[in-house]
Amino acid sequence: MTLPEMHPQRWGDPARQTDLPEGADGLIALAFGELQPAPAVPQAPLPAPRLSAEQLRQLAAIVGAEHVLTEDDVRRLRTRGKSTPDLLKARAGDLSDAPDAVVRPATAAEIADLVAFCQQEQVALVPFGGGTSVTGGLAVAREGFAAVLSLDLIRMKALRSFDPVSMTAVLEPGLRGPEAEALLAERGLTLGHFPQSFEYATIGGFAATRSSGQSSAGYGRFDALVVGLEVVTPAGLLTLGSSPANAAGPDLRQLILGSEGTLGVITAVTVRVRKLPEEKVYEGWRWPSFQAGAAAMRRLAQAGVMPTVLRLSDEAETAINLADPAAIGSAGEGCLMIVGHEGEPELVAARRAVVTAVLTELGGNCVGEEAGAKWAHGRFDAPYLRDSLLDAGVLVETLETATFWSNVDRLYADVKQALETSLGAGTMVLCHISHVYETGCSLYFTVATKAAEEPLAQWQVAKQAASDAMIAAGATITHHHAVGTDHRPWLAEEIGPVGVGILRAVKAELDPTGVLNPGVLIP
Amino acid sequence: MTLPEMHPQRWGDPARQTDLPEGADGLIALAFGELQPAPAVPQAPLPAPRLSAEQLRQLAAIVGAEHVLTEDDVRRLRTRGKSTPDLLKARAGDLSDAPDAVVRPATAAEIADLVAFCQQEQVALVPFGGGTSVTGGLAVAREGFAAVLSLDLIRMKALRSFDPVSMTAVLEPGLRGPEAEALLAERGLTLGHFPQSFEYATIGGFAATRSSGQSSAGYGRFDALVVGLEVVTPAGLLTLGSSPANAAGPDLRQLILGSEGTLGVITAVTVRVRKLPEEKVYEGWRWPSFQAGAAAMRRLAQAGVMPTVLRLSDEAETAINLADPAAIGSAGEGCLMIVGHEGEPELVAARRAVVTAVLTELGGNCVGEEAGAKWAHGRFDAPYLRDSLLDAGVLVETLETATFWSNVDRLYADVKQALETSLGAGTMVLCHISHVYETGCSLYFTVATKAAEEPLAQWQVAKQAASDAMIAAGATITHHHAVGTDHRPWLAEEIGPVGVGILRAVKAELDPTGVLNPGVLIP
């Protein structure tokens, strides 16, 4: 399987770049007024790599000379991630904080040697999977380091083993979503993990960022799929996962999950797998209000009858209809919910009947499978639309949080108000609930406004206001985008000084010279 | 609600001590030959408390003089736990390692002051809930400490708050199982956590030991019920739980769960709660072999159609029929499975139909609700039977582990052989699967043999052999009894030196003077 590389200045596959859909221009002008198109400019050359010939020779001795890369293009593709601020910088021609070199190890042993090299030479090491971070997870602190080395896991793409009795598979970290699914599909299996970044993001990244996917209601969050981990740390190899669950002290797997490359490099992930679903059906449901739809989601979760996919757009997002950009503005009133069922036909039928009964009783109106099919068809496309909007001069970005059910209304209102207030009149704030639990749910916001002359500064003010609102409401700074460098100050508030102390102590134990992803995650 | 205190030399409520059932004597003689009855002897007086009058005054200033207790009887009831080795020592009159004093704080603030006192005076602090540890969790290392203080949480029994929308409740740590259920039942709710220690064990203990219950298949392990924690650590107050789940770094809740009082004192636990089930039905199923029954459990778990209760006895345990000691030996052939369904009647009916279809297809034979009712009736009684057997001169103890499905046969055979080999001819080894996951299950062994002259030493040899077999098989040293002091050497093997380094680093950060449960858990 050959997958396209990421565009250095945009999301995704350059061949899939799209113009705005027919008719969208007019709507955008109506919404945002006269815009200043903002096409990307060519990239400036990169500074020369800050690694000596001797250092490069040492790296070549570890991974082979053909896997030590210093060309500008290669380094640019390993620079930063894909948040709107990242794209704004890249589009302005600035990829100046590219890594000094890219190394591509093939084994955990080579990674251990690279870690030792970095400790010896005080070089920062940045594990690289899909490059899809939207929280600055690749933008490490350079101060105090002789150079920055990108550890590209692209050669570690094996399905190491599969246990058909236990229904587990050992996957290497460099497998991109479609690659992992293809290897599993050959055996009639699926992982069932489909975040919006699925086409680029990797198994190692899913684990390191505690990822959630669009089907997590049915298959489980990625942290729930993991039963074992192999991690190369500067302190040695850590192998976890003696059993599905146990009482043998704290669950250290849950300390590595979400560690974002700061404590070690994940070199294998043992995941539980499921049979490929024989049937998949996605349908649309219409609700009179966001509150009514959210209450129905809560009822499903608390009754223990969850579909495989469950998401609900608020009134604004329903009207804009991101799932079908060609039909923007034509979606009608109320709120659209997507309800998906996957599995064996009899179980799908049984679960669908129960879910339908609950949703109907609560006032939902099934609008059929067309809306569901449209959502499923466009589920990975929104980031391409963002690039087109940025081209047109619209500032667009997303952010997300989660809280307990009783706090959802307040969190929704507060974040929305923070964004609208900081970005000013004419700002569009759309929201959907993408992940649902018995005790609460996530809120995912999409924001669009007319780009100012300094869109980066414009966004930073809004991001700060929204993040402050999340923490003030007692919610989390991130439900599924992780912490990176962007959310670090708010993580400190969320877990408090004692929590920060724990993270710092583990970091000091496992990575005493601090070469792994410096400046990421840990406040 | 007034609950009985624990007997210092036996399990449970002194009023519920039972003789062996009629007819059991003969069976026991048949199984084990001539036995030497081993009644308990009176307790020796305790050493004087190693706390000065000034220190006791300081403690009284924190919690009130009436909550600083130094009487022998009180101290004995806070000594060690309820493993067979603990009982053997207690029955021999030896409760010499009792705490020097017992303090009963009422608030997290008082606990913080007690922690500060202990740091100042280098006094070991042992959080005490139900005293039901079976892994030496209360037997702290005394070396290097001026005294040992038992921190009894008996005054912290509030249901602090209940959120009917999010379906969460904030519970204090000193609530015993029945007390928590009673407070929740007043609101039509249940926690659904019923370990065998339920009648004595506490909310704080459930959290600190990562407990599992007999209904965990349906309600979830205790670690899955917890959404928030408040913890007094020597480094300050730690408050966790901003959302049901998130991607805001490692899940620090999973570091406190299972920390066994070594990192801090849990002063509040926010749990998800469920509606009290309207219907409960437990039924028995008969399988031709342990393997056939286990395969059926695996099918249920991997199909995602789990009953609320699911357990399977092997041939030996089925024949002995611990669930109904009065009928020992009359249980017939094959393996007994208990399948329980709880919830709303329609959902129970629907789930029961699916489960019944799967089990029938796989060769199971439903033997009706009587077997299920007997199990439910006697579910908390086995520890009383152990005392009667110890009286009669039978050495009896339990141990447990967990692994992935493909490793179950090996683990079962290896642990069984280790026990039979080390304890010699005439040893009975019974086993059941008590907890089932998609990827694996737990194995719970009950061992009975003729007590030797030195039963403690006799058991230690067997325990060592069984524990070595678990680790050699790649399984966990404990699925639900926790680590305590007894499992500490094997925990070191299970998580390896890097894992041990993490635990030690967190310990050093949160409890730099090491006063919290010294010698427990952390290798």
Describe the structure.
2 copies of one chain form a homodimer. By secondary structure, chain A is α+β, with helices and mostly antiparallel strands. In chain A, about 35% of the residues lie in helices and about 20% in strands. Chain A has helices at about 25-30, 55-65, 70-75, 85-90, 110-120, 175-185, 205-210, 215-220, 220-225, 255, 290-305, 315-320, 345-360, 370-375, 380-390, 410-425, 455-470, 490-510, and strands spanning about 70, 100-105, 125-130, 145-150, 160-165, 170, 190, 225-235, 235-240, 265-270, 275, 280-285, 310-315, 335-345, 365-370, 395-405, 430-435, 440-450. Chain A has a 7-stranded antiparallel β-sheet with strand order 15-12-14-13-17-18-16, sandwiched between helices. In chain A, β8 (about 225-235) and β9 (about 235-240) form a beta hairpin. In chain A, α4 (about 85-90) runs antiparallel to α17 and α16 runs antiparallel to α17 (about 455-470). The longest helix of chain A is centred in the C-terminal third of the chain and has 23 residues, at about 490-510. The relative contact order of chain A is 0.13. The mean pLDDT of chain A is about 95. The interface between A and B is large, with 92 and 92 residues.
